[in-house]
Design a protein that fits this description.
Elements: H1 2-11, H2 15-20, H3 26-40, E1 43-55, E2 61-66, E3 71-76, H4 78-81, E4 93-103, E5 108-118, H5 121-138, E6 155-160, H6 165-177, E7 182-187, H7 195-212, E8 219-224, H8 238-246, E9 251-255, H9 263-267, E10 270-271, H10 275-282, H11 286-319, H12 322-325, H13 327-369, H14 372-415, H15 417-422, E11 427-430, E12 447-451, E13 456-460
Parallel strand pairs: 3-5, 6-7, 6-8, 8-9, 9-10
Antiparallel strand pairs: 1-2, 1-4, 2-3, 4-5, 11-12, 12-13
Helix pairs in contact: 6-10, 7-8
Length: about 450
Amino acid sequence: MDDLFEFSKNLGPSEEKKEEKSIFSVSELTRKIRNLLEYRVGEVWVEGEISNLRKQASGHQYFTLKDANSQLPCVLFRGNASKINLNLEDGQEIEIRGDITVYEPRGNYQLIVRNAQLKGQGNLQSQFEALKVKLNNEGLFKEEIKKTIPTFPNTVCIITSPTGAAIRDMISVIQRRAPWIKIIVYPVLVQGEKASQQIVRALDDIEAWTQAGKISIDTIVLTRGGGSLEDLWPFNEENTARAIHRTNLPIISAIGHEIDYTISDFTADLRAPTPSAAAEILVPEKIEIGNRLQNLAEILKSQVINKINRWNERLDYLGSRTLINEPIRILTELEQSTDWKFEMLQSSFLEALGTKEKTLSKFSNRLTICHPAKQLEEVSGKLEIINQSLQHSLSIQLNRCKERYERSAIALKSLGPHSVLDRGFSLTQDKDGNLITSSKDINAGDKIITRLKDGELESTVD
């Protein structure tokens, strides 16, 4: 908005402007204002009350959006009107998204409407998208869990308002296309706070009655006519979607117009764009059934004729066979074939028997080699060889030890004291047997013992 004030200042009198004497035409000024609004304001959301609504034969709609203090002219062109699921009426409180601009021929600023919804409906749309994501993540919309709609149903149950246009359209189409089909109508509210509860109860009742064998229903149709998002909201409730999911019977959802999508459409086994389309999907037309039956009859007739012809040909062939004309010859051939096969069997048996005998001989030889007595004999021989080897080794070791012992004994003897005595030496000991090696070790009067080669001498030291 500051740009608007700035722009207005530039349009005001100034010394420079006066000197330049720049003068705008009305068209130029209007175009500048339009460009400024479109560039600086552009697309906006506006809420207010509809008044002075005018719907033209061209499909364009003109109205004024007002609040307590101001009014805003609005135009909804035919192309955008076809995309909006809302029937505009005077007095409605709505929210509009559009582009602000100026209608140059009149110099009026206005809003070109791109989208419109009832006031507060934006919150419903957010709830719709959040629930759609939640149930999709849980797998309620998967194609692989959807049930097949029967092609030729006998009984259909329609859950809808008994006074609405949807039920009248469906019954009319069904009776025209397939008048033999039994129609059960379960009346429920299709809008309002209690509608969802009644729809859930209807689905649960039908499921329970079917399981108990009280009724036999081939297909359920959940339907109502068009309306606003608020009108269709019972079919966007989570409890409605979960009731559809837990129902074992196939369900067709036909809610509103072709452009209307509800959570029930995604959860059901099949979506129909309108109630009338649901009826056409539900039952084939009787003329179409007649044509299909006629085609099946022709196919069946052709197949029966072909089957009979093939059997006739087979009978003719069998009648020309030798079995019919010369049975003795056939029996003779069979006996010959039996003899030949017996000889082959005998030859094969003998050959197989010879092979088995060779195999048994091989196993016998292996068993003989591996017999415990044979194994013990071999082990005993090996132990005997080992024993002889040990005895020989032990004898050699003993002789070596004996020789070493004798050499050591001779060496010890040659180095011992007796060998010294034999060479003429003597040993002197005191009376206690201690060896005297020095004269300092004895005193006068001590008794000593002198050991010689052939005896001992006792003496006293003077």
